[in-house]
Write a structure and sequence with these properties.
The N terminus is likely disordered. This protein folds into 3 domains: 164 residues, no CATH class; 104 residues, no CATH class; 69 residues. The protein is built from 11 helices and 15 strands. The radius of gyration is 27 Å and the shape is globular. Helix 2 packs across helix 3, helix 7 packs antiparallel against helix 8 and helix 9 packs across helix 10. It is α+β, with helices and mostly antiparallel strands. The strands form 3 sheets. It has an 11-stranded antiparallel sheet.
């Protein structure tokens, strides 16, 4: 990438590149999906040291049964051109599905979800609850003939970042790890060296100088914006994307200003923001998770109590003429002091009053 003396670019594709969802399915009466025979067949493949697995037909679909389970603990892995299905009779959720990239670009997430749900119905699998999304990758592909942004152009809330180079040239910039990861990378090189997704050339109408801007978003952040199911995704994706592109990350034009957040937004980022405005949303800034809020308040109280425990340990150390007092000793001493103060009636009354204060937002 070069310094942004020229801002020539052209948008190519915008969409979802990976979607992962959990399906809570149980065999109904006369179910045609039998875990036992599939597990037996998998073990035969493993014993024979088969590498490619073997074809199995289920509900009119042809899968490749793999001779291994998944890293996340599912004993069965079934590969289909549109899906990778991890499943187990005693796992919860029983099915974990990765929607494959080419199918998402050609068919769309809504169609793939509907087809998968219809397939489970044909097999006689019944849903205990609606599906839940675990990961969504939002991508924006651009044609950049000369390189349109400098290496230090990204301003991100993420504490972790990584840069990958080859022959002195940056190929990937990565920001964040975990719930939100932003990647800006040379997609053509990635195809040549890793994914072999040459079908993208046809969709782009280009075979070189294509860079991808991609957010990998996992369930905790999705839920903050009310995205749990596919229906939520189609209704609220604009909300999470506006947060990501306005607050979490941005591409800017470097200047002499020491405050990078005051750098002007890059024209490519302005184009990306324009695209995001076409995504559906409910105007949610955040969806409040009450349980998470209560847990956070408890954690803050624990931090305060821990500080008092250190002070108590220091007092005990002076009183006992000892250099070190353990946290267990400090906790036990605090317990003794609190028990002396405890009055059951006032405890019940005061806790009830404070519970009402918390419920009312104080």
């Amino acid at each position: 990438m070069v310094s942004p003396s020229c801002f020539h670019f052209r948008r190519l594709l915008t969409g979802l590149d990976t979607v992962q969802a959990a399906y809570f399915l149980l065999p109904g009466a006369n179910c045609a999906f039998a875990f036992g025979p599939l597990l037996t067949q998998k073990e035969h493949l493993r014993a024979a040291k088969a590498r490619l697995g073997c074809p199995v037909e289920l509900g009119g679909w042809l899968f490749q049964l793999q001779p291994y389970g998944s890293a996340s603990g599912y004993p069965l892995v079934l590969k289909h051109p549109h899906y990778t299905v991890e499943c187990g009779e005693f796992n919860s959720p029983s099915f974990f599905v990765t929607f494959r990239s080419e199918a998402l670009w050609r068919e769309g997430a809504a169609t793939l979800h509907e087809r998968f749900s219809a397939w489970t119905h044909v097999l006689g699998l019944r849903a205990l609850q609606t599906e839940t999304l675990s990961r969504v990758d939002f991508t924006f592909d651009y044609f950049l003939p000369t390189g349109a942004f400098a290496e230090n152009s990204v301003v991100s809330m993420s504490a972790k970042e990584a840069r990958y180079r080859e022959d002195g040239r940056v190929q990937t910039l990565q920001y964040g790890k975990g719930d939100v990861v932003l990647r800006l990378y040379d997609k053509v090189t990635e195809i040549a060296q890793q994914s072999e997704k040459v079908w993208l050339f046809q969709l782009w109408g280009e075979s070189e100088n294509v860079w991808r801007i991609e957010w990998q978003v996992r369930k905790d952040v999705l839920r903050r914006f009310g995205i749990r199911t596919f229906e939520d995704l189609f209704a609220n994706s604009g909300d999470v994307l506006r947060y990501l592109a306005h607050e979490h990350d941005s591409l800017r034009i470097p200047s002499a200003d020491s405050n990078r957040s005051r750098w002007a937004l890059h024209p490519l980022w302005l184009d990306l923001l324009e695209q995001i405005e076409t995504f559906s949303g409910q105007g949610l800034y955040r969806e409040v998770d009450e349980q998470a809020v209560l847990s956070e308040r408890q954690q803050r109280l624990a931090i305060s109590v821990y500080g008092y425990l250190k002070r108590l340990a220091a007092l005990m150390s002076l009183q006992q003429d000892r250099e070190i007092i353990s946290v267990e000793e400090s906790l036990e001493r605090l317990r003794t002091l609190v028990v002396r103060l405890h009055e059951p009636v006032s405890w019940r009354v005061d806790v009830a009053a404070k519970r009402e204060q918390v419920r009312l937002g104080r």
